């Protein structure tokens, strides 16, 4: 317990077990995939194609994570689910 005697306020700290349970129940941030792994999942495209696609909006944005190119896994999954299938006409 922490006390602030000047204002008569008592503040209790949250036990670590409760904090851990709250953290586990909240949605976790998306995992960052290395660009090489993202290219494989997207259909074995090259890094150059991934960068062109990111620039043109045909591939998720590429981020720098600890000095390495990476893509958020949830964004990649959305692009894969919405990508047109080869040979299928759109429209």
Describe this structure in words.
By secondary structure, this protein is α+β, with helices and mostly antiparallel strands. The chain has a domain at 32-82. 41% of the residues lie in helices and 19% in strands. The chain contains 4 helices and 5 strands, in the order ββαβααββα. The strands form 2 sheets. It has a 3-stranded antiparallel beta sheet. A two-stranded antiparallel ribbon has the order 1-2.
The percentage of residues in β strands lies in 15-25%
Low-confidence segments = 9-20, 22-27
- Strand order, sheet with most strands: 3-5-4
Number of strands: 5
Summarize the amount of helix as a percent range.
40-55%
Task: Give the mean pLDDT.
Answer: 74
State the separation between the terminal residues, measured CA to CA. 64 Å
Tell me, what's the shape? Answer: globular
Would you spell out the secondary-structure blueprint of this structure?
Elements: E1 2-4, E2 9-11, H1 16-25, E3 32-34, H2 35-41, H3 47-56, E4 63-65, E5 68-72, H4 73-82
Antiparallel strand pairs: 1-2, 3-5, 4-5
């Amino acid at each position: 317990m922490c006390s602030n005697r000047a204002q008569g306020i008592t503040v209790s700290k949250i036990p670590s077990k409760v904090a851990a349970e709250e953290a586990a129940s909240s949605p976790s941030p998306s995992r960052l995939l290395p660009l090489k792994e993202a290219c494989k999942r997207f259909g074995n495209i090259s890094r150059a194609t991934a960068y062109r696609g990111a620039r043109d909006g045909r591939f998720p944005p590429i981020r720098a994570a600890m000095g390495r190119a990476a893509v958020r896994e949830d964004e990649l999954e959305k692009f894969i689910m919405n990508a047109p299938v080869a040979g299928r006409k759109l429209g």
